[in-house]
Design goal:
The protein is mainly α and about 270 residues long. It has helices at about 5-30, 30-50, 60-75, 85-100, 105-130, 130-155, 170-190, 200-225, 240-260, and strands at about 160, 165-170. It folds into 2 domains: about 20-130, no CATH class; about 130-270, no CATH class.
Length: about 270
C-alpha cells in the first residue's frame, strides 16, 4: 500500500477525495443543488436507519423516505411556517419514538429515525439559507473531529473514552479532534471572517467537537444494540452513510441554536 498506509486508511482517503467535490459544490451553489444533496443523503440515511433498526417492512421504509423527501420539498418551496415549530415537532417525534423504542416497539425506531434524519436536514437548510460559509464550517468541524480523533487515537492511544459502547475510541482521540476542530475554525475565521469573535468561535468549535463525539457514541450504541458493525457498506473504508454523518446529526442543530441565542450574549455569525 502506498506510503505504508493501511488498506482501511487508504480507502478512507480515496472515498473522502471522491465525495468532497460534489458536497462542496452543493454547499456553494445552494438552491436545487443543495436541496438535491439533502434529498439524496436523507433518503439513503433513512434506508440505512430502517435496515439497522429492523424496520423491514417495505411500506414503512418507503413512507419514511417519502417523509424526508417531503421535508426537503417544504424547505425548498419556502413553505415552512416556523423554524422553531419544525424543530419542536422533530424533538417531540424523537422523544415519542425513543420512548416507544425503549418499549421494544418497531414503530418507535421508525419515528426516532424520522427525527434523527430530519433534524440535520432541517438544520443544514436553515443554516445554508443564512450563510453558506456556516454550512462549510459545520462540515469542517465534523470532519476535523473525525480526522483529529482518528490520528490522535491511533498515534497516542491511552485510556478508552467509552469502552462499553465504542472500544476503539480514546480520550486522546477526543482531545485530538477538539484541537483540530479549533485549529480549522480559527484558520477559517482568519481567511473569511464569519463570526464576531474568533475566541468565542474557537470555544464553540471545541464544544461542538465533543458534541459530535456524543453523536458518534449514540450511533455506536444503537449499532451495538442491534449487533451490527456498520450501518451499511456504501462508502469504502467508512461503512454506511450514517457512520459518516453521526456527528453532523448532532452538530448541525446545535449550530442553529447557537445562531439563535448567541446574539443575546454578544456573539453572532454573519
Amino acid at each position: 500500500m502506498p506510503l505504508g498506509l493501511s488498506d482501511n486508511l487508504f480507502q478512507r482517503i480515496v472515498s473522502a477525495l471522491l465525495l468532497l467535490p460534489p458536497v462542496l459544490w452543493a454547499i456553494y451553489a445552494g438552491g436545487y443543488w443543495f436541496s438535491g444533496l439533502l434529498a439524496v443523503g436523507g433518503a439513503l440515511m433513512m434506508l440505512e436507519w430502517c435496515q439497522l433498526t429492523s424496520v423491514r417492512h417495505k411500506a414503512g421504509q418507503g413512507t419514511a423516505v417519502l417523509m424526508i423527501l417531503a421535508l426537503v420539498w417544504v424547505l425548498e418551496a419556502n413553505a415552512l411556517p416556523s423554524a422553531a415549530l419544525l424543530l419542536t415537532a422533530l424533538l417531540v417525534t424523537a422523544v415519542v419514538g425513543t420512548l416507544l423504542a425503549h418499549a421494544s416497539l418497531v414503530t418507535g425506531w421508525w419515528l426516532a429515525g424520522v427525527a434523527y434524519v430530519g433534524f440535520p436536514i432541517a438544520a443544514l437548510w436553515l443554516v445554508r439559507d443564512f450563510n453558506a460559509l456556516l454550512v462549510l464550517w459545520i462540515f469542517l468541524v465534523v470532519w476535523a473531529t473525525d480526522v483529529g480523533g482518528y490520528f490522535a487515537g491511533k498515534g497516542i492511544g491511552g485510556p478508552k473514552l467509552a469502552p462499553r459502547i465504542s472500544p476503539k475510541k480514546t480520550w486522546a482521540g477526543l482531545l485530538g479532534g477538539m484541537a483540530l476542530s479549533v485549529a480549522i475554525s480559527v484558520a477559517m475565521q482568519a481567511v473569511v471572517p464569519f463570526a464576531s469573535s474568533a475566541l468565542v468561535l474557537a470555544g464553540f468549535a471545541a464544544l461542538l467537537a465533543i458534541w459530535a463525539q456524543v453523536g458518534d457514541l449514540l450511533e455506536s450504541g444503537i449499532k451495538r444494540h442491534f449487533g451490527v458493525k456498520d450501518s451499511g457498506g456504501l462508502i469504502p473504508g467508512h461503512g454506511g452513510l450514517l457512520d459518516r454523518v453521526d456527528g453532523l446529526v448532532f452538530v448541525a442543530p446545535a449550530v442553529v441554536i447557537i445562531s439563535w441565542v448567541g446574539p443575546v450574549f454578544g456573539f453572532e455569525f454573519y
